[in-house]
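Thread: "does anyone have the structure for this chain?"

Original post by V.I.:
We have the sequence but no experimental structure in hand. Need at least a predicted one for the grant figures.
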Amino acid sequence: MDFEQLKTFLTVVDVKSFSKAAEILHITQSTVTTRIQTVESFYGGSLLIRDKKAIKLTPLGIKLFPYLNRQMDLWAKSKQVALEVLESPTTFTLAGTYSIWRENIIDAIKQSLSPVHTLKLITEHSSVIIDKVLDGTIDIGFVYNKPINKNINSFTIIEDTIGLYAPTDIPIDSIENIRELSELPWIHLNWGYDFETWIKNEFEPNYLEPLIEVGHSDLEIKLINELKGIGFLPDGMVKNTNLKFKKIPITNQKTFPKQKIHLIYKKVRENEDILNNIIAKFCNY
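Reply from O.Q.:
Generated one for you, tokens below.
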């Protein structure tokens, strides 16, 4: 199976028609049919259900479709990389979740790059970052949860503490027990495996639901401000972004979780100079 055959298959799936796909790709309908047959032969089974009304994926096609889509993305990415290497300085791609781009991480990266390198920073979910580190489309990733994968190297670059914060003008100076959060406008964000495990253990035997659960640090901060709410935030983030929040002690709470940020990269690349230069900047971070 080659690039044109895969492209043809994905086009047919997209437009749900052999004839429309032929028109879009500027090929004959018989060529479309031949290419689809080649793809199906490669996988040893039918991927499309053909009828007069539309084209549908078979159960095998449904299972394979996300992988074939990703394969096309990789082909496109490889072409982009080739162009970047031939026409411009080498692009080095780093990715992190939105809330990770802090603590002068970018400055540490920039100091490690030579003038012949172009820095590209992208924001993604941790699971996507791990997948793209493995397939080589991301050079270095920053994630909260350390991946358990023999093909990935990782080490901790930041270990922050997490505290409970609220706007300075709300009439709450402390709470006695963490379970009181259920009675407050609690805005919750999962700050990683260690944090989520800690908070669920503290709520034993029954986990109490927050007022709102979000997936983005900026949204958590916005809602804490607008709803006069309360929520857990990394101490370093609050300090470095000058948020007008106050820390709310939990008087009966002896320990708080640590929030770790891990730098990850593909193990087979551990001897690359540029990658090691970046890693060295974080050794004493």
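V.I.: this helps a lot. Residues 158-260 form a domain with the D-Maltodextrin-Binding Protein; domain 2 fold (CATH 3.40.190.10).
O.Q.: and The radius of gyration is 25 Å.
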